[in-house]
Write a structure and sequence with these properties.
alpha/beta, Peptidase_M20/M20A_hydrolases, four-stranded antiparallel β-sheet, Aminobenzoyl-glutamate utilization protein B, Aminobenzoyl-glu_utiliz_pB, 13 helices, seven-stranded mixed β-sheet
């Protein structure tokens, strides 16, 4: 009996060791295979960087990624969730279904050449200040690698790449979640460009945004001001009340606005004016409450200025539901892949970028560092529509160093880095880590069950409801 037990244990240990050896060999092969496609993926990302298309207008960017996926055997469905530039691309069949998110929208007002001094591209307004050209390309690269392994019958299942437009304020993924496009998915993998290498263990702020529009009466501002009713006065009255309100909201809340239309000429009483607001907080319920107070301020401003008001919800995203189980899996793979190494020319570029920042940044060489897995932290600084995905399916993400360390997102410096191999090298780190994480989920499906148990516990009895309601996609929100 004793010998039998020892023999059985020995076999179990041997099988475990063999399984680990096989997994490591598979991952080594995947890393090499993805790297062999570097020139293709670099050119794809730089083409999208050059297109610099705004949210819901990413026609060429989306088409380029779809073309690459089709050429690699994916079945692509375009125009999903009522969004012309959104798509899904699938390969394989059955469970598990692993989803990978791909973004590709740019930001207005961030035109910049790929050089370490501020210099916009002539005739162009937008730029990839958040690196979504890298985001979408790396996700497609990871998806293609998993497709190859399914095709070669290394494992079974379905890989699905989601083409996600308009993350920057347009809430593109919310419509895809609302449409039920993630209902059969077991886990979702994503990433985001950044200035360091780490698995995301910090939540995001829930966010609700709207454009408030006021309608008054035009009149000559000098000859007959009494006959006019200024829509701009209403905007300013609303802004004043909201700014007073800041003292009486939770300190974690954030409210920002920009006047998008304040009239056309000083001597004409404006009959139309518009202000665009964001409300953010770590908890979605607080966002709802603060937004309701915002609308009451808008109504009060309209009453006080004898104007009329309406508003259009533009976007709304949940906080990010973090998954420690998946985070630990991704951390192991990030450590296996490692960070980014720069050439002497790239180091010189990076030092010039850092000199322009106006503050002391981490060493350029720190892009090679992989940060340890952090404890879950609920209050993030930004917002993302990945949050809505995370309330629908267990989700995990990372950031990799696609910008010189210290570079802030949404800056001309980030755009400049993204147009060089500083960006595309970091992109490849993300592609490899996502592919390796997916390999673990296909080959160790107990991880999916564990992640799902954690997901259900974290979500509790909450039933998903989009913060933007039932509105159709705001396809012209950048106009």
């Amino acid at each position: 009996m004793y010998k039998t037990t020892v023999t059985l244990l020995c076999w179990m240990v041997l099988l475990s060791v063999n399984a680990q050896t096989t997994s490591n060999a598979l991952k080594t092969r995947a890393i090499s295979d993805i790297q062999s496609g570097y020139e293709l993926y670099k050119q794809t990302a730089l083409s999208i960087w050059d297109y610099a298309e705004l949210g819901y207008k990413e026609t060429k960017s989306s088409a380029l990624l779809q073309k690459l996926l089709k050429e690699n055997g994916f079945e692509v469905t375009a125009g999903v969730a009522g969004i012309p530039t959104a798509f899904t691309a699938s390969y394989g069949s059955g469970q598990p279904v692993i989803g990978i998110l791909a973004e590709f929208d740019a930001l207005p007002g961030l035109s910049q050449q790929a050089m370490p001094e501020k210099k916009p591209v002539t005739g162009k307004d937008a730029g990839h200040g958040c690196g979504h050209h890298l985001f979408g390309t790396a996700s497609v690269a990871a998806g293609i690698e998993i497709k190859k392994l399914i095709e070669q019958k290394v494992f079974k299942g379905t890989i699905r790449v989601y083409g996600c437009p308009a993350e920057e304020g347009g809430s593109g993924k919310v419509y895809m979640v609302r449409e039920g496009l993630f209902k059969d998915v077991d886990a979702v993998i994503n990433w985001h460009p950044g200035d360091q290498n780490e698995v995301t263990m910090t939540s995001a702020l829930a966010n609700k945004s709207a454009k408030f529009r006021f309608y008054g009466k035009a009149a000559h501002a000098a000859m007959a001001p009494e006959k006019g009713r200024s829509a701009l006065d209403a905007v300013e009255a609303m802004n004043y009340m909201v700014n007073m309100m800041r003292e009486h909201i939770p300190q974690e809340a954030r409210i920002h606005y920009v006047i998008t239309n304040g009239g056309k000429a000083p001597n004409v009483v404006p009959d139309f004016a518009e202000v665009y607001y964001y409300v953010r907080h770590p908890k979605k319920d607080e966002v709802k409450d603060i937004f309701e107070r915002l609308t009451r301020a808008a109504n009060g401003a309209a009453m006080g200025t004898d104007t009329k008001m309406d508003f259009e919800i533009i976007g709304g995203t949940h906080d990010l539901l973090l998954n420690r189980t998946l985070g630990e899996v991704m951390q192991q793979n990030l450590q296996l892949v490692g960070g980014v190494s720069y050439s002497p020319e790239e180091i010189a570029f990076g030092e010039k970028i850092q000199a322009s920042l106006g503050f002391k940044a981490p060493p350029v060489s720190s892009a090679s560092t992989v940060h340890p897995l952090k404890a879950v932290f609920d209050a993030g600084g930004g917002s993302t529509d990945v949050g809505d995905v995370s309330y629908s399916v267990p989700t995990v993400g990372l950031q990799s160093a696609t910008w010189i360390p210290g570079t802030p997102a949404h800056s001309w410096q980030a755009v400049a880095c993204g147009g060089t191999e500083v960006g595309t090298k970091g992109m490849m780190v993300a592609a490899k880590v996502m592919a390796l994480t997916a390999i673990d989920l296909y080959t160790q499906q107990s991880l999916i069950g564990k992640a799902n148990d954690e997901f259900k516990k974290a979500k509790g009895d909450y039933k998903y409801e989009a913060l933007l309601g039932d509105r159709k996609p705001a396809l012209n929100y950048r106009d």
